[in-house]
Design goal:
Elements: E1 6-16, E2 19-24, E3 27-33, E4 48-53, E5 63-70, E6 73-76, H1 81-91, E7 101-108, E8 111-118, E9 123-131, E10 133-135, E11 138-141, H2 147-160, E12 165-172, E13 179-182, H3 188-200, E14 203-212, E15 215-221
Parallel strand pairs: 3-5, 9-12, 11-13, 12-14
Antiparallel strand pairs: 1-2, 1-4, 2-3, 4-5, 5-6, 7-8, 8-9, 10-11, 14-15
Length: about 230
């Protein structure tokens, strides 16, 4: 996926979870933050950032914050980007060969999953999660507790009982990455739910992305470490 009209800036502050103050060409601008997560490890005053400039008079803000650089690594923070790159990856055969249908935002029971995928033999629900928390090259999710995320894991298990296949794709939005692991420090019950889901047949996948100021692209699959302490052994 690609962005248009990217500008470089310097992060100043985040007055609330929806807005950031960014210096662009010596001028302070208010930007929309396309991510409601904490991002406290990335949003550091003075950090180099990249914003997308919009030409839409109806918008409340002229810019959207897209990416942040920390210690030479670029992190895409756009919470809408993982679904878009996942859809591209699935359509190109990265997940399964012979895909005949990819439908975003498909409703199942009380949930709406990010992607619904069909081949001639299979019908699959997929939930997609973006990952920006980096600890020694391992991407961790979530950075803050998410009851909604845990609910999706359990409902994917229910879909299995009705003949569907199910998958959770963790999109690691920085490079290089060595793997993915659930963040037990933040939410141990989410990590436990992932372990139980894998035992029931839900596919738990992770991919590494090449993040650039004007785009994001999946480049390879990553190892997944679900058991406690497993990621520390590599």
């Amino acid at each position: 996926m690609k962005y248009e009209n990217i500008r470089e800036g310097r992060f100043l502050a985040r007055p609330n979870r929806f807005l950031a103050r960014v210096e662009i060409n010596g001028q302070e601008e208010v930007c929309h933050v396309k991510n409601t997560g904490r991002l406290s490890e990335l949003l550091i005053p003075g950090a180099r950032v990249y914003v997308e400039e919009h030409d839409n008079p109806r918008r409340k803000t002229r810019f959207s914050l897209i990416a942040i650089e920390k210690e030479g690594t670029l992190y895409n923070i756009d919470s809408q980007a993982p679904n878009k790159v996942a859809k591209e990856w699935v359509e190109q055969g990265g997940f399964l060969p012979g895909v005949t249908l990819v439908k975003p935002e498909k409703t199942y029971q009380q949930s709406r999953f990010d992607l619904y995928i069909e081949t001639r033999e299979k019908k699959v629900f997929m939930e997609v999660k973006g990952v920006t928390l980096n600890r020694d090259g391992i991407g961790y999710f979530p950075d803050a507790p998410t009851e909604r995320g845990k609910k999706h894991v359990m409902e994917l298990c229910e879909a299995l009982s009705e003949g569907y296949e199910a998958a959770i794709l963790f999109v690691v939005k920085f490079q290089p990455a060595r793997g993915f692991a659930p963040n037990r420090d933040s939410q141990p019950d989410f990590a436990d739910a992932l372990c139980q889901a894998r035992k029931k047949g839900v596919k738990i996948l992770a991919v590494e992305c090449q993040a650039e100021p004007d785009g994001l692209k999946i480049v390879r699959e990553l190892p997944v470490f679900l058991e406690e302490g497993e990621a520390l052994k590599i």
